[in-house]
Structure of Magnesium transporter MgtE:
Amino acid sequence: MSDPQTDRTEIAGDDEAGDFALPQRLFDDVLDAVEAGDAAALEALLEPLHPADIADLLEQIDGRDRRALLTLWPGVMDGEILSELDDNLREEVIATLAPAQLAEAISELETDDVVDFIEDLEPERQAEILAGLDAADRVAVEKALAYPDYSAGRLMQVELVRAPEDWTVGQTIDYLRAAETELPEQFYHIVLVDPRMKPQGYVQLGRLLASRRDVRLSDITEDSFRTFHVEDEQGAVAYAFNQYHLISAPVVDDDDRLVGVITIDDAMEVLDDEHEEDILQLAGVGSESELSDSVRETMRQRLPWLAVNLVTAILASVVIGLFEETLVRIVALAVLMPIVASMGGNAGTQSLTVAVRALATRDLGSSNSWRVIRREAVVGLMNGAVLGLAMAVVTMVWFGSPLIGGVIAVAMMLTLFAAAVGGILIPIALERMGVDPAIASGPFVTTVTDVVGFFAFLGIASMVLA
């Protein structure tokens, strides 16, 4: 069997885009080892891999091979790998682990990772895992679980480094060296607190090490300092991290006392999850859709949105039915109708995607919404004019009718205009009504583009070609 590190080098040399992708040869070697029951060979293949890579491998092989792999090498499963797995697959994997084995696997994780790991489990399973943790960790996790879902309290970790605000650099460095075993595995700031445990600022480690021993910590604090309340919404926290380029930030309780810290990796994971959720919802495939989902789960997520689209399609068909006589007399209209609908749908999707992304990143608000709406309207009208003119020429050549060419040109202008305006107005309106625009915008925009497109095309044709 080949060395996975060698495989990575070969892949990197052949395809720069695949530098960090698992090579197919590794999958083949792992499955060969599993089929042969060769635990030593399997361990040699998996041991050098990063936990995220092992999680990817487990996600991409089928359930039978995955169960065989875990049975052959049970030592593969530690907390870091579990935390990297998709939620649905994680539940499947932990169901195969004994409580003691599971508690041991997550005992080395930071408290925020433990909370993220167990918050969606059944109460009985949570109790089993908590019972296997150290007393201090168990109390911290239980306290975090008491905070609202998707709050800063759930996102924070209690492991942090704090120092009195009147300490010097020398005192802080001496403290850090003496407290080596009690320090978090990773931290970025020293949080300064007053006697009431209220955070007053923080100092970056780099600046701490670059300063003289007699310099007071309060003299080298960072301007970026800000705190979050335990009940602040995670999405707002992640936005602030991205907006203000934060690395870490303290979390306070109702009395403004320091209770934890949020780090950039956790904040960016929230931001990434929200963007991924918006994309999935925009496509109507469910906000938690994963490649490891079962057929039944995938159907459950997608069928409702397809049903909604079916209703909108029926509405569009009703509009077409109003012009049945026109279609019977002029068959060319039936040939050209899909072009109008397709162009309108694509234009609406373009505006809708821009709007949903801008709303999610808070780039689109009351101050600039009308400017953006006007821009999209003008763009839709101009694109409609250009494409309508091109289609008019094609239609005249195709059917030899300048009138039909003029009809489709005007119809495409109106359709692309309506699609562009609808694609931006509908998500803005839904967002102001408190409805997630990523979830509900698609069917509404589809309805607008189809109804306006068909009504404009067939209505104008009925008047001009009657």
Q: What stands out?
A: The domain at 295-464 is CATH 1.10.357.20 (Tetracycline Repressor; domain 2). Confidence is low (pLDDT under 50) at residues 1-17.
